Amino acid sequence: MDPKLLNPLTLAYMGDAVLDQHVRRYIVLKLQSKPNRLHQVSKRYVSAKSQAQTLEKLIDEQWFTDEELDIVKRGRNAKSYTKAKNTDIQTYRKSSGLEAVIGFLYLDHQEDRLEALLDEIIQLVNERE
To answer: Where is the protein localized (predicted)?
Structure first.
């Protein structure tokens, strides 16, 4: 299976789970707190607004390869039939673009590049806090 051939929203679905798991591991090890507190902190990293801001910063910094940027654009431009929760459609689409490239890297077994991206996301969100 070639991940590039998958629907970008399928890649975003996978990427959402990968990012969520990475963030959960990070905050559990960092905070060692109760689940409600962990959930509140995790939202800073995985909300559509946070992901959209992070994507914009990564694009500004030219962080992505051409191939990755193509996946981001496909994810961002994909027509979703689900309603964006607590955000506008543009923010939701940007977050889908970021999730799509995460899902792509995961399914393409690009572990080093994936880990670098996930760590950069954590760092960018921490800098904003």
So the answer is: Cytoplasm
